[in-house]
Design brief:
The structure is a single chain. Among the domains are: 3-82, Gyrase A, domain 2, CATH 3.30.1360; 162-248, no CATH class. The protein has 22 helices and 15 strands. It has helices at residues 3-17, 21-25, 43-49, 53-63, 84-95, 130-146, 162-173, 178-183, 187-204, 207-220, 224-248, 265-274, 309-324, 338-350, 390-408, 414-434, 446-449, 457-477, 492-502, 504-514, 518-536, 551-575; strands at 38-41, 69-74, 77-82, 112-116, 150-154, 278-281, 284-287, 298-301, 328-332, 359-362, 367-371, 376-378, 382-383, 386-387, 442-444. α19 runs parallel beside α22.
Length: 583
């Protein structure tokens, strides 16, 4: 959207410098240390023109005379300030029919992304720390889709290996039956308690570890009994996960976990061996990575012949490339797994995989939760000594949001109040995670996340609901309004709202460059802040309000309300939050 303002400038500059206009379009940047709307660095342009950058900047001031923009040369930079009426007529004209275009791009047209995120281990409830991979991955998937990419969402379940063998060992030791599992209302809790018991026993009895490896090998060999238990446990686990994902509005296209590729690992191991890449190291089979500058080898097979994560990831990636022919593959997994991804990415390159340079590990930091019992931040959130489950955190946030909404808007019907509480409660948890850089550690405290002011999800949602309310009231005040004349929007605060909206599209594109959803989160906060400043101006002067007595002015301002509401609402949805119309 910002390009609709800068493209006419780019055309004039390109013609003056004798270069292609595309070379100018990519140069516009935010101004630094000056009051302006956009800056044009003149370094590259001056080289093409054979001039000093400050001299060219000064010359371009005259070139842009009469263009509807105020240009000021500051050293090698040309700082541009658009007139409010020009911004209004240009942007409202472009967005009035479909404000969601403000959060759309075409840079990914014809490209496919595979994104692997959330990917929990089965037989465990989603813990609170799973919010990071789940919602960063979900936001990235939505951002890529908004930018034109075809997106394949993958939940690569941890449903194989020694951990699962340990669970079967516990099952057999306690002589459990599938009928007992079916009778349990909380099947995953039942399985997790079993896992805890057998893990504790393993510390006392070394034989348990060998039993776990035995059942793990039985699974890999296709043993009917082992696979029957695996299927029952996997089915129960997925059902529990789907309940949490439904609350978060997260969907997946592919649920194939590690077990799906148990028969695909043999050919990869054979290929590594045939190409001379597989070596023995203390009984294990490894790939030496010293040729690519890495000190440690990549483990492929344990000494007992069992497969490892790298082998399964390679098999899965081969399958995904064969099915989807992706242009980019993202693995949204915590930063602690960085070495693992570096290693198997390197193996993919040594194998000559065509997709090797398209692989990205997108890591994240920890989530820390405030513990009221200890008055401290905890890496593994607990309450009364028990780990906090993601569903429990969401449920408490919704309950707290319900109390806040009931106090702020007691006239909401009960059903609508429940829907709003769910949107606000979940949105508070999600946005608290997304607003910070993903590699940072994130602190979560209910009271802070649920605030209706500051950098929070409820603040953004309230800004959207406030705009919706103005639209409803306008229909009552002006049932037959005149056509909107955007040229009447000549105030600086109105221009500020529109420019904040225009910067959403560049922010979306920067998300894709860095796989950083916080860039869009910050841009949306800027829109909400600009909207708040604009609407607050009417508190002291009725004539400055959207719902002013002048029908023509009210219609023009309503056009801005609609554009802001549509762009803000779509931005929320792209990040994975709902946009309530009442709060």
């Amino acid at each position: 959207m910002l390009a609709s303002l800068t493209d006419p400038i780019a055309s004039r500059v390109a013609a003056h410098c004798g270069i292609d206009v595309a070379q100018v379009r990519g140069l516009f940047a935010p101004p630094k240390g000056v009051a302006a709307d956009v800056a044009l660095p003149c370094f590259q342009l001056a080289k093409a023109k054979g001039m000093a950058p400050p001299a060219l900047a000064a010359e371009l001031v005259g070139v842009l005379a009469g263009s509807g923009v105020d240009a000021v040369a500051t050293g090698p930079f040309l700082n541009l300030t658009f007139r409010a009426a020009t911004v209004a007529t240009t942007l409202i004209g472009a967005l009035a029919a479909d404000p969601t275009r403000a959060v759309r791009a075409t840079v990914g047209a014809g490209k496919t992304l595979c994104i692997d995120f959330s990917s929990p281990n089965i037989a465990k409830h989603l813990a609170f720390h799973h919010i990071r991979s789940t919602m960063i991955g979900n936001a990235l998937a939505r951002c890529y889709q908004a930018a034109g990419w075809k997106v394949v969402r993958i939940n690569f379940l941890g449903d194989w290996g020694t951990a699962f063998g340990r669970l079967i060992a516990g099952w057999k030791r306690e002589n459990l039956s599938l009928a007992q599992l079916d009778a349990e209302p909380d099947k995953v809790g039942f399985l997790n308690r079993l896992y805890v018991r057998i893990s504790q026993l393993e510390k006392q009895d070394p034989a348990v570890e060998e039993e776990a490896r035995f059942w793990s090998r039985r699974c890999e060999a296709g043993d009917a009994e082992a696979l029957g238990l695996w299927q029952a446990i996997r089915t129960a686990s997925i059902a529990a996960c789907r309940q949490v994902y439904a609350l978060l509005d997260v969907e997946f296209d592919d649920w194939n976990g590690e077990a799906h590729y148990r028969d695909a690992m043999g050919p990869i191991i054979a290929e590594l061996r045939a190409k001379g890449l597989l070596k023995e190291d203390q009984g294990a089979q490894v790939v030496d990575l010293s040729s690519v500058g890495m000190k440690k080898p990549c483990l492929i097979l344990r000494s007992d012949g069992g497969s490892l994560y790298a082998t399964r990831d390679l098999a899965a990636c081969d399958d995904r490339y064969a099915r989807y022919r992706f242009d980019r593959a993202i693995y949204e997994v915590d930063l602690g797994q960085s070495l693992h991804f570096k290693e198997w990415f390197a193996v993919a390159r040594l194998l000559g995989r065509p997709y090797a340079d398209s692989l990205r590990h997108v890591g994240h930091g920890l989530i820390l939760m405030w513990n009221e019992e200890t008055s401290g931040w905890e890496k593994t959130a607990t309450r009364k000594g028990m780990p906090m489950m993601l569903m429990d955190v969401l449920a408490e946030s919704i309950e707290r949001a319900a109390a806040i909404v009931a106090e702020k808007n007691p006239d909401l019907p009960p059903d609508e109040r429940a829907q709003v509480a769910r949107a606000v409660g979940v949105g508070a948890v999600v946005f608290n995670d997304l607003k910070s850089g993903r590699t940072n550690d994130v602190k979560f405290k209910f009271e802070e996340a649920l605030r209706f002011d500051g950098e929070t999800g409820p603040y953004l949602q309230f800004a959207h609901a406030r705009l919706c309310s103005i639209e409803r009231k306008h229909r009552e005040m002006h049932p037959s309004p005149p056509p909107a004349d955007a040229a009447l929007l000549g105030r600086d605060d109105e221009k500020a709202v529109l420019l904040a909206i225009a910067r959403l599209q560049p922010a979306l594109e920067r998300v894709l460059d860095s796989d950083e959803p916080s860039v869009l989160a910050s841009a949306l906060l800027n829109v909400a802040s600009a909207v708040s400043g604009w609407l607050t101006a009417g508190n002291a002067d009725v004539a400055l309000r959207v719902l002013c007595p002048d029908p023509a002015m009210a219609s023009a301002r309503l056009a801005l309300v609609k554009v802001a509401r549509g762009a803000l609402g779509e931005g929320l949805r792209v990040l994975g939050l709902q946009a309530p119309e009442r709060m």
